[in-house]
Specification:
The protein folds into two domains: 351 residues, Glycosyl hydrolase domain, family 43 (Tachylectin-2, Chain A, 5 Propeller); 154 residues, Exo-inulinase, domain 1 (Jelly Rolls), CATH 2.60.120.560. A hairpin with a 2-residue loop joins strand 30 and strand 31. The strands form seven sheets. The protein has a six-stranded antiparallel beta sheet with strand order 23-34-25-30-31-32, with no helix packed on it. Strands 24-33-26-27-28-29 form a six-stranded antiparallel beta sheet, with no helix packed on it. It has a five-stranded mixed beta sheet with strand order 4-3-2-1-20, with no helix packed on it. 9% of the residues lie in helices and 45% in strands. By secondary structure, the protein is mainly beta. Beta-D-fructofuranose binds next to strand 1, strand 5, strand 9 and strand 13.
């Protein structure tokens, strides 16, 4: 029976993976598919990322419902298929076998008379606690917020409620539960974005929900009946905007048996460099109540923005982690929406709008007496490495060209570097092109800030808020050496400094692709111990 449920999906997946593995062998059907993609992409060739996920057409925002099953990472997303700005929300769908290259699938959940389908999550109900599985199959349960637009327009306050839907074909199609909503609105305007996790410590389903300026914690044994346990957030963390898209999960502190609970809370506006951003909290959970770790709370109070952020760049929002990653893998895997509500609907792309970040592996480390999350691009990216440029021991005492497009196309690149002897200086990397556009990023010793400066990066005038400032992130590590990983696509940069302790993600729209990368000191010379630049090949 189980085979019966899954057979159609598996067939489709086998076709997808055959296509992926046999790209160079030409058969009629492969040619047609490639051609169709090129036609759809041609208008936007300049700004369509080479590998970050974008929908073929139309508007996208938050990632939703991410789970892993049977060899595939599923990614759903807030999607309005009929326009290039936000509109009636659907759940679009994409799948990947490695979280790096994605195949867009048909829309998974459509809005209906109860409302738009807002953000939410999905889990694999391995023990069929919901009873939706038939004949031994493992159902996938999605939980989302219904947003009743008519209700909102007519001045009601209870227009958001929580609902579920189940899939018996590995997440390809969903059936909405007949008894929806499963959680009614208690009279709060902002009451949304349910994220479910299986709590193996207390053996129950947990769900976190953003409710105004708080997170509400619920529990359930069957994913249908939910009990409110507690809330969190009063007077803690950043409150410059509405709280949205939480995530909550236990994590072992790296190299120990200590388990802590991590809570993500997206906030818009109120991010450290303007607009949307995601803060996190580390603490303990007794099965009912989350309490922040005192040393972490102390760090928050001493931090510049009363919070600690998973990313200090302006383009990583509403990110959450994948469900059902096998124990044999054991990683916590994350992905976010690579834009910002400050300007997302105005960026200079027409047929499609917005991309997702690269998927990232998250680790929890004990640093001094407190805790920090470390983010790194998933290791799967390494299998796309092709041409490599490598240099060791360069003394940088002026503007030094590292690479240009004669040597390597810079629009899909992974860079790893290590710098020492920085002393009273700082370093600036610059991506430039023949139009004089430049994107600068690096570190300034004077104020101990990492920075990204996109003020001269090309098209910036579509929104006043896009290039109004240099984005800054205070360095927290006291390592005398600086190391980092940089992921560059045509219109984005993702910076993972100090092993991912400080992350910055930003998008940009140059008039023509950047074709030169150079590095220079802020003041005094320094030592570039090592740099490795890998071209990533997606052909
Ligand atoms: C976050 C968000 C969510 C909401 C969704 C609507 O970007 O505002 O809170 O569910 O977008 O598309």
């Amino acid at each position: 029976m189980k085979r019966f449920y899954y057979s159609k999906f598996m067939l489709l997946m086998i076709c997808v993976s055959l296509f992926h593995n046999c790209k160079n062998k030409s058969t009629e059907s492969q040619k047609i598919e490639t051609k169709a993609d090129k036609v759809a992409y041609s208008e936007e060739e300049l700004y369509r990322p080479n590998f970050h996920f974008t929908p073929k057409k139309a508007w996208m925002n938050d990632p939703n419902g991410m789970f892993y099953y049977n060899g595939y990472y599923h990614l759903y997303f807030q999607y309005y298929p009929d326009g290039n700005v936000w509109g009636p929300m659907h759940w679009g769908h994409a799948v990947s076998s490695d979280m790096v290259t994605w195949k867009e699938m048909p829309i998974a959940i459509y809005p209906d008379e109860k409302g738009y389908i807002f953000s939410g999550s999905a889990v694999v109900d391995v023990n069929n606690t919901s009873g939706f599985g038939k004949g031994g199959g493992e159902p996938i349960i999605a939980m989302f917020t219904y947003h009743d637009m008519d209700g909102e327009k007519s001045g009601k306050t209870d227009y958001q409620s929580q609902a579920i839907a189940y899939s018996l074909d590995e997440g390809q199609t969903f059936t909405k539960y007949s008894e929806n909503p499963v959680i009614k609105n208690p009279g709060m305007k902002d009451f949304r974005d349910p994220k479910i996790v299986w709590d193996s410590i207390h053996e129950k389903w947990l769900m976190v929900l953003a409710a105004g300026q708080k997170i509400m914690f619920y529990s359930s044994s069957n994913l249908k009946d939910w009990k409110l346990e507690s809330d969190f957030g009063n007077g803690i963390g950043a409150h410059g905007g509405v709280w949205e898209c939480p995530d909550f999960f236990p994590m072992a502190v790296q190299g120990t048996d200590e388990v802590k609970w991590v809570l993500f809370v997206s906030i818009n506006p109120g991010g450290p460099n303007g607009g949307s951003a995601t803060q996190y909290f580390v603490g303990d959970f007794d099965g009912k109540q989350f309490s922040i770790d005192p040393s972490f709370e102390n760090d928050l109070n001493n931090s510049e923005h009363k919070s600690i952020w998973i990313d200090y760049g302006r383009d990583n929002y509403a990110g959450v982690t994948w469900a059902n990653i096998p124990d044999t893998d054991g990683r916590k895997l994350f992905l976010g929406w690579m834009s910002n509500w400050n300007y997302a609907q105005e960026v200079p792309t027409e047929t499609w709008r917005s991309a997702m970040t690269i998927a990232r592996a998250v680790e929890l480390q004990k640093i001094d007496s407190s805790y920090r999350l470390l983010f790194q691009p998933v290791k799967e990216i390494a299998s796309y490495r092709s041409t490599k440029f490598k240099e060791d021991s360069i003394i940088v005492n002026g503007n030094t060209k590292l690479i240009d497009s004669k040597l390597m196309d810079l629009s899909s690149t992974e860079i790893n570097f290590k710098i020492s002897d920085l002393e009273d200086s700082g370093f600036t990397f610059s991506l430039t092109n023949k139009f004089g556009d430049s994107l600068a990023f690096g570190y300034n010793t004077n104020d101990k800030n990492f920075f990204v400066d996109r003020r001269q990066s090309g098209k910036t005038g579509f929104s006043e808020k896009f290039a109004d400032r240099v984005s800054l992130a205070k360095r927290t590590s006291d390592n005398p050496d600086f190391s980092g990983t940089i992921i560059i696509d045509k219109t984005s940069i993702e910076l993972f400094f100090d092993d991912g302790e400080t992350v910055m993600t930003e998008i940009f729209f140059p008039n023509t692709p950047f074709d030169k990368l150079s590095i220079e000191p802020k003041k005094k010379e320094f030592f570039l111990d090592h740099i490795e630049i890998h071209k990533l090949n997606f052909n």
